[in-house]
Specification:
Elements lengths: L4 E5 L3 H13 L3 E5 L2 H8 L7 E5 L8 H11 L4 E6 L6 H7 L4 E4 L4 H14 L10 H20 L3 H4 L5 H5 L2 H14 L11 H13 L3 H21 L9 H35 L8
Parallel strand pairs: 1-2, 1-3, 3-4, 4-5
Helix pairs in contact: 2-3, 6-9, 6-11, 9-12, 10-12, 11-12
């Protein structure tokens, strides 16, 4: 006889005990985890599970979607069910259901839960899902993010008071995205010393020559992060949630690092400007 193997993930010990007892009485083989880190270790281990039954909202880093994404990678054939105490999640439900097979509202009748699990195992998981990393999403959406960023710039009177073509205003962004995507894929720890970005430094110098203030540089950087996060929000249905948190932290860290390098170069240009203007006519300054 083939037993249905269930991985149960819930931070509430009483819930875990109650569900484990009910499932085992119905013939399921149950392994339980008290949180996301423990669940991820089990999923990456040698044991294979037919069903993932996880709470959606748990304390600490990650949540039920993190566990679902990990299971999708480890075992695409597994049925994934999420438990939530919030019956109305409006727009979020559609995105979640692109990753999990079903959302079950707490408290749930145990007999109904067992019936749902049995039905899902019989039918198998929903159609194959496309799961993408943050880096992959940014790579395919680079052009649309830049266009959205420029549209946001056009709504800022202070920034638009500096006459510049679209090409001039956006010139630094393609290389910035290349460096950001490479950083996301490198696995470099957040907060590690960043390599020098010639592109970021040149961007700072160009903005000084255009007549920007340092505050304008900061506003451009802030708006870029908003545009990136808005794009990720629109792609919640395909994001690999197991990598989402570190991806967001890496994006913020990389853009802040490039902003610092741009402002450093901007300040250097500002310090040199009075010296250049004070040179006698025809004098050569290296």
């Amino acid at each position: 006889m083939d037993y249905i193997r269930v991985l149960l993930v819930d931070d509430d010990e009483i819930v875990r005990m109650a569900l484990t007892g009910a499932l085992e009485q119905s013939g399921f083989v149950v392994t339980s985890a008290a949180g996301v880190p423990e669940a991820l270790k089990l999923i990456s281990g040698p044991e294979q599970y037919d069903v993932l039954l996880s709470d959606l909202h748990m304390p600490g880093a990650g949540d039920g979607l993190t566990v679902v994404s990990a299971m999708r990678h480890a075992n695409p054939k597994a049925v994934t069910l999420l438990l939530s105490a919030f019956p109305e999640m409006t727009a979020a439900v559609a995105a979640i259901l692109q990753q999990a097979d079903e959302i079950l509202v707490k408290p749930i009748d145990l007999a109904s839960l067992i019936e749902i699990i049995q039905q899902r195992v019989t039918c198998g998981p929903r159609g194959k899902r496309q799961i993408e990393t943050v880096a992959s999403i940014l790579e395919r959406a680079t052009e649309s993010i830049i266009l959205e960023w420029f549209a946001r710039m056009e709504t800022e009177p202070a920034l638009m008071s500096i006459p510049m073509s679209c090409e001039q205003r956006c010139r630094h962004l393609p290389l910035l995205f290349q460096e950001l995507i490479a950083r996301l894929r490198s696995g470099q720890p957040v907060g590690a010393k960043e390599p020098i970005s010639a592109n970021a430094a040149e961007y700072g110098a160009q903005r000084f020559r255009h007549g920007y203030t340092a505050a304008m540089l900061i506003e451009e950087s802030r708006t870029l992060q908003m545009s990136i996060f808005h794009t990720l929000q629109k792609n919640l249905g395909t994001i690999d949630y197991s990598l989402l948190l570190i991806g967001l932290m890496t994006i913020a860290d990389e853009i802040d690092s490039q902003l610092i390098q741009a402002i450093t170069r901007y300040a250097s240009e500002a310090r040199q400007a009075p010296l250049l203007s004070s040179q006698p006519s025809g004098a050569y300054v290296s």
